[in-house]
Amino acid sequence: MSTAPGTAPGTAPWRDPALPAAVRVDDLLARMTLEEKTAQLYGVWVGAATDGDGVAPLQREMTADHDWDELITLGLGQLTRSFGTAPVDPALGARALARAQRRIAGAGRFGIPAVAHEECLAGFTAWQATAYPVPLAWGATFDPALVEELGGRIGQDLRAAGVHQGLAPVLDVVRDLRWGRVEETIGEDPYLVGTIGTAYVRGLESAGVVATLKHFAGYASSAGARNLAPVRAGGRELAEVTLPPFEMALREGGARSVMAAYTETDGVPASADPRLLTGLLREEWGFTGTVVADYFGIGFLQSLHRVAGDPAEAARIALEAGIDVELPTLSCYGTPLVDAVRDGRIPEALVDRAARRVLLQKCELGLLDPDWTPESGERIDLDSAGNRALARRLAEESVVLLDNPGGALPLAQDARIAVVGPRAADALAMLGCYSFPSHVLTHHPEVPPGIDIPTVLDALRTELPGAEVAFAQGCGVSDPDTSGFAEAVARASESEVCVAVLGDRAGLFGRGTSGEGCDAEDLRLPGAQAELLDALVATGVPVVLVLLTGRPYALGRWQGRLATVVQAFFPGEEGGPALAGVLSGRVNPSGRLPVSVPHRPGGQPWTYLQPPLGLAGEVSNLDPTPLYPFGHGGSYTAFAWEDFTGPEAEIPTDGGYDLSLTVRNTGERAGAEVVQLYLHDPVASVTRPDIRLIGYRRVELSPGEARRLTFRFHTDLSSFPDRTGTRIVEPGELELRLAASSADVRHRARLLLTGPVRPVGAGRRLRCEVTETEA
């Protein structure tokens, strides 16, 4: 390492951990050349493919070769996906990353290492790392504490491998179920997404890893559910549906990074929007961390959005908007940016602003300290017994029993069972598109998965050793071939019960039926699976439908014709045993739907968050009412909701109100109930959703056990943007509804808010606290 002239080695203020970070960074910036400052603003993707299909959109077109040795003499902002690009033994990968960091630090004047980032959407996206359930399954648990534990474990694995930043969670709220990335989201309700996502952020950040919120903002509202299509959401939808999860994860979770979305809203790309990335995010919400580009998102300002004429102009627009780091590699923030600053087209102050934020974060991470070392010193076991136990518990809690009218489940221990379907004997049926086997190993077919992933078929045979289990695939996931139907029907006809395991194949950019760039025209089951299910039902043998999907599919065609319906959203490497446990009765299902299940394939492109004209009515022949509503889920036990306390009351527009009830397990086995609190605003100055979730509590009870729950409502939770865009609490009537789903209301409390209209700001209460005591 060299220091500025006249400064003794080791005594520069920026190297002194005792000084405030801001003082250290200001001193460092003053010593850096323009080229050294810009080098902190981009990442490099070593080993990314520049030919053929890649793991990111337009990777081949947007990735160029760079002279690594020359590049790192200036320093480097980020290292892109050392583990997530190709299969590498984790221990060897950690050593290689440490060597690369030493080379980076040794090559530059200041000895500053890079921030290493990785994907961690459903676990560390690395070979031999635990593949956890996808975020949609997190939402199905309604269990923030469990998801926080998940975030902590993933963070520990990242940190042990030398990774500083995780590109998760996805806080996009589902608006159209046909969108391919539904599996990556937590659900269709902003309160559920916010509370579960914030829990994950707390876990990841508790391990010292920077959580990156994505995609900011509006990505999931793309027109026609097409990936990257324009967003035609209005300001009210953004304020009430899109933005609240991000605000909660920043304020309550402490996320230190945000990723700008690819999409445009009303003609302005998110990566070019200073009102979003600076005005709202920093000036209103007080965010002080780093804003990173989604992969190639700055270059897309030129190539896709066409709001920039060349890479230098794209760099200027993105810097002005507030993007600090170009990912995954340098295209615009490298030489084009330096040249544009030199010739006066871009103010150097924009580079300084971004570099200061990047270096402040590196200072927080200890990367500027004289005793920094790239080796974590921690043992690396990315699929430990503890990880697998957590993956199993998360999978078990996420399975949703949609229907069991005839009590076909649990299965008898000695039953004759036909297991049929394209998802029954395929390990990849358990995994989402950002799991390493689905995301990367498809390009390396010669490499084994690196983790044990029991299939439903194998797990069921293990779970029920006394049962007679036959298997037939029946058909593929997405092809129309029906030649396997005859064998499937024969196996079903010979059995006492048929378990039909259907669903999605996760992939990227059209290589799957679910995943990034795998958007659906409608919500029919893919390929010939619907026809296979018809054929199985026609045998007269009771059919237990098990769905392994990344989105819900329309099931009204089989309403009343199936013995049981079980929904799992890509439940991870332990999903097979979890599902087998539900089918056998060892596991009492407790998941609840984070997204509604539609009745008809094309009749419900929206979600439950609808004002009156978005609901069924006489003005249209199309009925969007779901077959199974948001929050729905069954159990093998029963619960009574007793002693409700919620009388009619008047409270001021800045007041609070408590409502309580006792939940009792009246069945013969332990189980979990999820009590949900919804708000109904009968008359308001702007149209409001008929109901919306504002609180919930998952409560686990032994047979006969009871717990008293108290929901502490504050009027801030009823606030909304008025006609001018100002968020207010409005006087008038409200109704609070305690419910088992958005359509199953058990108790109501009517309130009258009195007093003046009250504006509320960024410090408003974002959640309904719930206390639990012995009954």
From TrEMBL:
Q: Give any Pfam family that matches.
A: Fn3-like
Which keywords belong to this entry? Answer: Hydrolase
A molecular-function term among this protein's GO annotations: hydrolase activity
The Fibronectin type III-like domain extends over 673-742
Family (UniProt): Belongs to the glycosyl hydrolase 3 family.
Protein name as it appears in the record:
Glycoside hydrolase family 3 N-terminal domain-containing protein
